[in-house]
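All the exercises in this workshop are built on plain-text protein records. A record pairs a protein's sequence with a compact description of its fold. Read left to right, the backbone structure tokens trace the chain's path through space. Once this layout is familiar, the rest of the handout is easier to follow. Here is such a record, shown just as it appears in the course material:
>
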Amino acid sequence: MFNLIKKDIIIQKTQLLLFVPLIIFLVFFAYNLSPILIFLLASTFIPANAYVYDSLTESNMLLNSLPYTRKEIVASRYIGAVVYMVISIALAGVVLYLTDFGFGIEDMAIAAGLFFTFAAFAFPLFYILKPAYIGIAIFIGMIVLAIGFQPASRFLAKHLTTITDFIASLSTTTLYLSSAAIALGLYLISWLASQWIYQRKVF
């Protein structure tokens, strides 16, 4: 399974050269973006590219001819995504620190939670959608998230006062732990859903 995880890095060597320039571009040309969104974009870079590449090259046919079960193939995707998410957020943090872009540990934690939530909904779609639509779906989804995140937060704070008051009444620790539990729960459910879909998929 480790070889399956390592495969994504080997295949994406050229694309990974764009990773740091992408973060620098966001820092200098999209400086109004929240650091949370920068961390989120960074964390999805490798996992999303890996799924798109596999779909476009139809490498699933090759993977299924190797001595790996379909459960192991799906597991490598989900475990690998977590590994790459941690590495990507750490690298993005180094770039932001070196460029004096203000951020905190809580920004990293929130971005990680959003990554788990985004991945929970996106990953099963990679086993359902046709390759031609996958990149479009991700691109549109990330743009909508980047543009709509802050307006949606302000709308909820203004109009859904009962919910926002309840959230505000929670301690910071309780809020973070609850959010983490929900995000991880969604990720695990997504893992099981992807496994169920992939095992029934015909290549």
Observations:
- The longest helix spans residues 70-98.
